[in-house]
Amino acid sequence: MNAQMECTSCGSRLGITEIAYTCRECGGLLDVVYDDAPGDPEELKARFRARRLSDETADRSGVWRFRELLPFADKRHIVTLGEGNTPHWDAPRAAAYAGVDRLAVKHQGMNPTGSFKDNGMTAGVTQARALGATTVACASTGNTSASMAAYAARARMRAAVFIPDGQIALGKLSQALDYGALTLQIEGDFDVALALVRQLTDTDPIYLLNSVNPFRIEGQKTIAAELCEQRGWRVPDRIVVPGGNLGNVSALGKGFMELLDWGFIDRLPRITVVQAEGAAPFAQMVRSGATTLTEVANATTRATAIKIGAPVSWPKAMRVLEVCGGEVLTVTEAEIAEAKAVIGSDGIGCEPASATTVAGLRQLIADGLATPDENVVCVLTGHLLKDPDYTVEYHFGRLEPGAAHANAPVRVASNLDAIRIALKS
């Protein structure tokens, strides 16, 4: 399969050995595209499954196990931490809370650095290595920086992460520091940091690894293949994903569309995007019927992973909605916090941004936009321990407004009678 980069706006093409993140003709976003199908779907399904028993490094990856679906990389360049292979779990308490008969979650927080970013970063850093890059950079609200720092360390590359000062959960910041990245705390929010890193990578020999990089999207699209494989290649009726910079919905949509075009599946799922109320430029655009996105200045939400006012991948996300159908919703801070606690009651747990999916599904059911018998998968994008302060504050009743599912510690005297009373209560 011959791979090229193609502009999603004007169709101009570039070779994959060129360093470009947007179209040189019109400035549009780029896709990695292939001139033909990867092969017989049934033969490839059997090959993908057989690789799960292999000890070969590439086969142990839940991204590169599906490498025929992203054949731009030479195996000798692959940088992997065994990413992917994330669980697909039933969540009965979350299902009841949302108002559906059954709900499954695809937990990308079980990746090596604790978020879905690893699926894309293995592909992005692999491409960086193939291009001979020695320094990589990104702007981040936390998860991207943690992931890029880890993969750059494995590839022995220098990593520079641009983070908004004071707006990143410490669990995520600690990862970037521990993996050895040069961490630059920028005065301003994520959008300011991204603008600066894009200016830098346009002029200096530094490879950009934000989701505007089309190779990041190639890695993330394999989430769709792995999910379908886990479900016996039966496509769910609906996928619900959080909406921040919108790379995730773009990647999932591309993955499902290619699987349909190449004969692996027989239909597309409906895709619903959920944003936090204070950081919802994409939702505002779709609701208004506008054709371009208006940035939200000073985006606000405690779900820091999606605290983004100017998502760069919105044109790709819009394409996904048009092809797959679906909705864009907003949920409040209280709805996010309650949904997060309910997900935790299923023994699963996630970071706040992930919980927008269950909160959004509950809203869909309440508004009659989805039916209880739909086969739904909510994508959880980050691990519970990414932002432990949020969880503790919620259960201690320190988040506003209130905490219906709070589970605060109980203070007891140091004797068995007091403990027995506490256990009975």
Structure characterization notes:
- The protein is built from 14 helices and 13 strands.
- The protein has 425 residues and is α/β, with parallel strands linked by helices.
- Among the domains are: 1-36; 88-113 and 214-395, Rossmann fold, CATH 3.40.50.1100.
- The strands form three sheets. Strands 4-5-13-10-11-12 form a six-stranded mixed β-sheet, sandwiched between helices. It has a four-stranded parallel β-sheet with strand order 8-7-6-9, sandwiched between helices. It has a three-stranded antiparallel β-sheet with strand order 2-1-3.
- The longest helix is centred in the middle third of the chain and has 17 residues, at 214-230.
- The radius of gyration is 21 Å and the shape is globular.
- The protein starts with a strand and ends with a helix.
Order of helices and strands: EEEHEHEHEHEHEHEHEHEHHEHHEHH
> What are the low-pLDDT stretches, counting only 5+ consecutive residues below 50?
none
Largest sheet: 6 strands, mixed
Strand order of the largest sheet: 4-5-13-10-11-12
- Termini Cα gap: 64 Å
Mean pLDDT: 95
Residue share in helix: 25-40%
**Estimated radius of gyration:** 21 Å
CATH architecture heading of one domain: 3-Layer(aba) Sandwich
- Class computed from helices, strands and strand pairing: alpha/beta
Number of helices: 14
Strand content: 5-15%
CATH topology of one domain: Rossmann fold
SSE blueprint and pairings:
Elements: E1 3-7, E2 13-15, E3 30-34, H1 41-50, E4 88-90, H2 92-98, E5 103-107, H3 117-130, E6 135-139, H4 143-155, E7 158-164, H5 170-178, E8 182-186, H6 190-203, E9 207-208, H7 214-230, E10 238-242, H8 247-261, E11 270-276, H9 281-288, H10 314-324, E12 328-331, H11 333-345, H12 352-366, E13 376-380, H13 388-395, H14 416-424
Parallel strand pairs: 5-13, 6-7, 6-9, 7-8, 10-11, 10-13, 11-12
Antiparallel strand pairs: 1-2, 1-3, 4-5
Helix pairs in contact: 2-12, 3-4, 3-7, 4-5, 7-8, 8-10, 11-12
